[in-house]
Amino acid sequence: MRAAVLGATGMVGRTFVRLLEGHPWFKVKTLVASERSAGKRYGELVPEAPEEFKELEVVSLSDFLREPDVDLVFNALPASVSGEVEEKLAERVPVFTNARAHRYDDDVPILVPEVNPEHLKLVELQREGRGWEGFIVTNPNCSTAILTVSLAPLREFGIRDVRVATMQAISGAGFSGLSALAIHDNVIPLIEGEEWKIENESRKILRRLERSIVPAEFTVSAIATRVPVLHGHTEAVFIELERGSIDELREAFESFDPLRKLDLPSYERPIVYEEVPQPRLHRERGKGLTVTVGRLEESARGFKYVVTGHNLVRGAAGGSVLNAELAKRLGYI
Amino acid sequence: MRAAVLGATGMVGRTFVRLLEGHPWFKVKTLVASERSAGKRYGELVPEAPEEFKELEVVSLSDFLREPDVDLVFNALPASVSGEVEEKLAERVPVFTNARAHRYDDDVPILVPEVNPEHLKLVELQREGRGWEGFIVTNPNCSTAILTVSLAPLREFGIRDVRVATMQAISGAGFSGLSALAIHDNVIPLIEGEEWKIENESRKILRRLERSIVPAEFTVSAIATRVPVLHGHTEAVFIELERGSIDELREAFESFDPLRKLDLPSYERPIVYEEVPQPRLHRERGKGLTVTVGRLEESARGFKYVVTGHNLVRGAAGGSVLNAELAKRLGYI
Amino acid sequence: MRAAVLGATGMVGRTFVRLLEGHPWFKVKTLVASERSAGKRYGELVPEAPEEFKELEVVSLSDFLREPDVDLVFNALPASVSGEVEEKLAERVPVFTNARAHRYDDDVPILVPEVNPEHLKLVELQREGRGWEGFIVTNPNCSTAILTVSLAPLREFGIRDVRVATMQAISGAGFSGLSALAIHDNVIPLIEGEEWKIENESRKILRRLERSIVPAEFTVSAIATRVPVLHGHTEAVFIELERGSIDELREAFESFDPLRKLDLPSYERPIVYEEVPQPRLHRERGKGLTVTVGRLEESARGFKYVVTGHNLVRGAAGGSVLNAELAKRLGYI
Amino acid sequence: MRAAVLGATGMVGRTFVRLLEGHPWFKVKTLVASERSAGKRYGELVPEAPEEFKELEVVSLSDFLREPDVDLVFNALPASVSGEVEEKLAERVPVFTNARAHRYDDDVPILVPEVNPEHLKLVELQREGRGWEGFIVTNPNCSTAILTVSLAPLREFGIRDVRVATMQAISGAGFSGLSALAIHDNVIPLIEGEEWKIENESRKILRRLERSIVPAEFTVSAIATRVPVLHGHTEAVFIELERGSIDELREAFESFDPLRKLDLPSYERPIVYEEVPQPRLHRERGKGLTVTVGRLEESARGFKYVVTGHNLVRGAAGGSVLNAELAKRLGYI
Fold first, then answer.
1. For C256, which DSSP code?
2. Would the pTM count as exceeding 0.80?
3. What is the ipTM of this complex?
4. Any idea what DSSP says for residue B41?
């Protein structure tokens, strides 16, 4: 299948390109970026690009929209332009997007394959309701992706309340999103919109989708901070459950491997348990798709643990590629 | 009054010396360190020492214990040797200590002057029960000190539950307590014993002491992490209260100034409210004794906020000096 | 004397304001910034401003130029706008500037009071040649300032050649001049224009000015790099001299104190010798005006040493304030 | 050939093990470490070890020396114990060592295959003079390795003088060799013994070995500093040459590929030219064996450039493995 990557020169876009190099199902044919970059070779704009893509000529968004001759689209454009672009594209092709523009639409799933694969069927509502041939599938915000993977095996114990403090890496702010002077030797406990996203997206992802949508009954509270780490978001989690012992939780983390049978090309065991999870040591685990959980202990009203994962892979491009693989395996594309 | 500083060459010891330079009530006469340092000039061991102390000859602990000719002692020795040393000294002089050796003794207060000044009267139990002329007053662990200062104005709203994730500075680990290779570009979510201390010391500090001790009724859960910041611990706090609006909480933080009238030499307003508290920007506030609170918001089951403060001053030596000043003002020394 | 600070909200501008707080000779009356900031209180724009200036209303550059009612001006504007602004102001008042716009004009001194105070008389050429009542005095680029202070005591040994590799702090790049992603865990050996400045400014500063200008006869080569340090530029220097022993050089560094007698308000001993100079430990020495020299050793063709100093104080605003003090003491203003 | 790695749990030892995983010529059979580690599984001591070695039981040095049943040895032990150990082993097997114990022996080469492969024949002197069946081949100190690779293509222009300022990564100091408190937000211009090593080892490596040894005629001066970077030493180099234009030098860097024909398993192009070499971006180039050169410019008395390379691979274990491959290809083992 022929794929396009939109926003291919940004932080997440580059990660898409890197992850799709040599992909067995999806062949990147088109790299889309701003007017300013259009016409240049990708290797000129992104020196560390894989050889395979270095000579590819970058296409402007307007040119691409005129004739989007591909079978699926990965979108790493900013949210501000993504809303319309994705709708226009979804008329004809499936769009797997990291942008938040449509995440909160009722008929658009925020998909994490290991967590809520059944939400993929929401795309049928899109096709029916909007008359599209394609559809939009979003992945969650980076810290939500990492959090929900760690929460998935705990659902069986009845989640009641989650409180999470994040320590997020600087690459989450994009190339020039964060001044060195701001974060050097510092912690910045403010990331615009992040706490709202974690609280709302995780509840949307973890609700059940049966005949109708069953809203999540648990509460989520988040405090988001930025720390001087290159890649890898770390999250300190306090959780209240209806039942479950520490041994059962540990076992649930260690045995969590829900999509093994689907044999998706990028799939890796989603969780590894390790006593002291650390972003620098563990962010590349499972090619960046595995989150590391540890420090699980009983706490005053439940349990506490720490999870760390790669914000650009598990938390962005890698999750989106996995979404496309799931969609293909299940026959949606 | 003539003071001694024990462990004067360590991280906390140096902070004691710096804070006591030119102190109007306490005059440092004796600097105590290991046998290895004994006999050397303090300025030789600590190049950045205040001029006033550079020529002072360092005394070994054993020599000092033989004849502790001072009126009070500040202790920055490690816990492992402090237990016995403090007991021996307290037979004759008041000891204000940063070590944890006696923190959990029933008759020893963990004192934070702005939070539980009335606990100071526990020293009477020591004098009676142990037959001492002096006494031991401890200050809490660094992250507990910062946390409890922020909790103090919230007591009036009925604290039910506290969950705190700390992001602690590397100076908290001592001079060579942490390898550069371990913390560079990393977050380490394990600080031995720290979570237990936060959970237990904060409940001891915040209990009421009336005719008898009224145990704290709220719960505390902590996850402690180390981040690549020089000084300044940052804490993300989720709190459940019995009552209170966000405006009332904000007002309580902003007006908290309990010991103003006592006119203690080192006293500074203990809390400043600021939208985005950050360790590098705010750690020196109030000469390191003021904690900065911010990001106060309603949360699923209560409120959330962030507090940051100087771990070596508010969290160690500065708190201890304030303890001694309170003890003097109230006539205990 | 009534002073204005131009570019008062930038990195260097803030340093000017901080250093001029309570200055015995110069009273800051006017803070000038961009149109966007005009009309706001300075404390609103710069939260950490000294109390003295918090309520001062910021003036726009165009308003200020219409009626520059002060006795001297400190300029921290970018070079791009400084050229014309400084010329216009110098018609009436003395301008002490950190901008490079006029540094290379023949009749404008690049002044470092401890190094080339006699260059100040160049301002007479300005007054004659340009018909100005005021004049322009520049301070050098930050790394040049630090380097030339360390070279000054070595002139007596006949400097032949200097090679310097700098390791410059991130605050030298301004508030948002450097992305966190670029410098985190990295060294960037490119700072636009910096090497040229070091090579040329240091030779202009260290030439002799007798009846006529005697060009410097030595050569200077520089490699400039950025390192993940907040403040404090560190420079590794290889120097060839005509004569001199290591003991004589050491003595020259240690006894260098040329302006002591002038009793300038901000003057500090310009050099302290210390075995291992380090930016984090020594940048605040002498309120940021003292550079620390160390590691002096013989080398294949001469000597090598390391110097570190505060880039915003010694290397920018502090040097400029010292320039104004010298000008006043010598009767130029 | 069966290989042993001595000091297998240290920083350099782990790098040896990682690089030898799946090596086509050398099969690691024995991992040697301290008595404390002996008897444990390697995976227990080094969690990130390759699967292939996780179950291998670590052997103590004394046990290994009793019966060193391998065909070659890679040594990553500290210099203090290496002297005798290497001599004893070399009686029977070839030793490729990162330790400096024998680097300065007349009959022991400091070998960098791309730079001085002909020095390998010195081992014949060892066999003759010492009566050994094996021999000792050392690789240089990490910063020397990186420097000499960059100097090799410049030899044809007649090197006269080299001055180098290094900015070295923290992993060069070993696991706990450097306290976080020392290097955080800092540059430390002192690495014990490093400057001497650079100055002397580079001259030994770059001398010619014809009928007899022709001492290097050029001079080398070094200033070594530590910077807060994980891996990758960066070096600012000033060089004087007898002849050569900047274009010729650039061409010499770009075409340098001396051992291509030997087809050594680990061989990578030793130099890539790139405008702004940076440790975080380029340290993994060529699996860590390629150094990146850039910023080449004319300078007052010659040229200046910057080189960066991986200190643990190019500068230690990787260089040593390449040494062994060269020795095998040339029939010495």
1. -
2. yes
3. 0.95
4. B
